[in-house]
Amino acid sequence: MSEKLTHLDEQGRADMVDVGDKPDTDRIAVAEGAIYVQPETLRLIKEGNMKKGDVLTVARIAGIMGAKKTSELIPLCHPVPMTKIGIELWLDEGQNAVRIQAKARTVGKTGIEMEVLTAVSITALTIYDMAKAVDRTMRIGDIRLLEKRGGMRGDYVAEDYKDAD
After folding, report:
1. Does 108 or 138 have the greater pLDDT score?
2. CA-CA distances (angstroms) from residue 93 to 50, 99, 161?
């Protein structure tokens, strides 16, 4: 790991990294997270009976929108032209959770990790918003990067990530 913090200038002030001289490379990233709910909340989501509507569809769209807005939400984050962003959601009845996975791809000068982490976070927050009237005990957690490919620093795959190619 480099000892130098890349988002600080020579005077130690916050500064956006100049990626202009970096080559464009194919980049992908995958992140995951979960929102833990009461069994009744999970049932309402599964059956599509939440008063605010189809929770999973709205949350998926919100996650995609969140990924596209990452550079507006995270200071010093570069805007990244994504060629693909996808959100997968599945109900984990054993853990009373909605599991979230975001995958994104770009060809560019900087990575797309922040976009998938933002997508997972916004997806979970949207589920929370849509279900808060019936469940005040919800807990968002386990948000992490699973995979990153492309760029000068090389690839990263979490040891327990089974879906990596």
Report:
1. 138
2. 17, 10, 21
